[in-house]
Specification:
The chain is α+β, with helices and mostly antiparallel strands. Helix content is 43%, strand content 18%. A hairpin with a 2-residue loop joins strand 2 and strand 3 (53-56).
Length: 79
Amino acid sequence: MKDGLLPLTQDAIMIGKCSYHDFYGVLIDEDEKEKIARSLGPTNKVMFLRNHGVVCAGATVEEARSEERRVGKECRSRW
C-alpha cells in the first residue's frame, strides 16, 4: 500500500486513520517499544507494521477483533 489505506470503501472509511511503522524485528529494545506506541498514537486503532503485518487495538477484545476483521476484509478486496 504505497499510498496507505485509502478510503475507497465503507470498510476503509469505518477503519479511519491508520498508523504506519517500519518494523525491523523482535521487540526486545525498550526504545523500539516506545516508537511503536508513539506510531500508533492516542486515538488510532489500526497500525500497519511495514514488512510484517497489522496491529489492531480497541477498548475491548471484541472491538480489536472487529477492527482486525474489517482490515482483513478491506485488504482482501484490494488484491
